[in-house]
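With this grant's support, the team has encoded backbone shapes as discrete tokens. A representative record is reproduced below.
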Amino acid sequence: MPDAPAPAAADSPVRRVLGAAVEALGGEQRDGQVAMAEAVATAMSDEQHLLVQAGTGTGKSLAYLVPSLMHRERVVVATATLALQNQLVERDIPRLVEALKDTPGVDTSYAVLKGRSNYACLHRIREGVPDDQGALVELPEGSQGKKILELRAWAEKEAESGGSGERDAAPRHTDKDWRQVSVGHRDCLGASKCPFGQECFVELAREKAHRSHLVITNHSLLAIDAIEGVPMIPDYDVVVIDEAHELTARVTQAATDELFAADVERAARRSQRYVEGPQADDLADSASALRDALSQGTPGRFERVPEEISDALQLIRDAARACLSAYPKGDSDADGDAGRTQARGSVQEVFVTAERMAAGSDADVMWLTEGTERMPPRLCVAPLQVWGQMRDKLLTDKTVVMTSATLMLGGDFSAVASNVGLKPSERVLGDGPVSDDEAALPWVGMDVGSPFDYGQQAILYVARHLPPPGRDGLAQAQIDEIVELVDAAEGRTLGLFSSRRAADAAAAAVRERLPHLTTLAQGEAQLPELAKQFVSDPHTCLFGTLSLWQGLDVPGETCQLVLIDRIPFPRPDDPLMSARQKAADKAGGNGFMQVAATHAALLLAQGAGRLIRTTTDRGVVAVLDPRLATARYGGFLKASLPPMWTTTDPAVVRKALKRLAGG
């Protein structure tokens, strides 16, 4: 069982401030929220790591923001998704600051830090966008040209008014539009060399962060700053990681590199006007060697890198190094030659990636993707594990509070703790002693529960009578079951599927057999538009894949049935997951349980969590995979879910859905 929340002192400072904040915001105090706030304050003052599971509806944002504002040093809050970051910045923190602005001992200054490409670039807007040879690109004609002009005008107004220049505040646009008014780190000149450095939105955001007590950022930027050692965030004492179940995936993503033959060619072309010798041409030749090698390669993970690809990588590495050395010495960038800085930066990026891939480190996993009509094959490299880097470069130096609604997998914190770099043996239980080992990183695990009564509000239905899912998509028996459940619920269904093909097949069947209902499928419109339509009419179904499993919040009668077609194990051919599973087996562990089952448990818990979002919600989570009831690992997976009332009887579930649909 999880640790019970320790009773908090009735007059503790954090309890008083939290109470004042809740009262000012018109909310009601919850025991789990108070217990969490007390635990976060204790972790910060004692410099001890904390993992706290806080179910939906606990009010966990307030529970960590209040002690963060009261802490003596700067605190960083890192989220996984832009949706939560925007909720904190646009709603939670401004309201909290207003409520606590006159409270003694509370520093309410805060700032937001995002990656460079999330801000408009004044240099690109005012000087234009260079092509691969460095010549300025003409503004495109038609609707895109008008949209870029609109974005430019917006950015100028932001600069005049002292606005943030953040993408989220910009007029509606596409990714392609935004790339015309922003730059990544590679193409940035740097504040000292850019003629608009004093006005730069990124630099102004960093300056504000240096003046602020609370800094809101994301997992990726945190990883770049703490783990890769690239200074992005001002010095801080504590980091609160919300949506912590996503942390290892986001850190892995930040540490993953890709290499296209086209990347190398582009770097070579951009270098040709700055490098007088043959080095740029040699780099272009190495790109051709890579393209030829990739065309002969077999997609998938490399146990051993094929000789042709290895040779091509070494050729690119050496050619890129020579090209970098051939760039003219001196600071010609001071004359405003942005193209030179950006061209050299592209070669530097190619060199670093090729050098990493050519090294063939056992700490990395490398694979070749399958090419498509729109995307040529590319090489990818990712760390085999990230817990070691997190332990050495984040957990050893900072106090870390991790929170999520899903941190206990299989009913325990051990799986998540191990993946982020904390050892189960280092956990402090109750009033037990802290380890005398100086290298140990003591941590506390705490479950503050949920205000929801899952046993009364939700049914977990496992379709035990169905055949196990196969590799060929949905079987007819599963499709029949989906139609019967959706019919009983009269719509009101969120379908979470393991593949786009399965989601589309289910949507097609429901449209054909239940034409009186509205059936939406992911990909038919932007997700916010689909969600809006789903919420507006209860007689609607929304079927989709991964982004719906974790990112959708639809309380009320809109969603009374969550369908899950199969246990979301990683694909057997997933290069990184298969490598991690094999490494765990080799180390004497159980790779399936440590990697595949843990991954599935996390996604299953997130998917099931879409159902109950308020104390008045009612409904069914229907898992159409009998293995949840029959397989040995089923107990581990079910223990990761909220404590719903469980049945395998389809008649019972259909009756329950009809009662709910009837009001």
About this structure: The CA atoms of residues 317 and 351 lie 5 Å apart. The first helix runs from residue 13 to 24. Confidence is low (pLDDT under 50) at residues 4-8, 332-336.
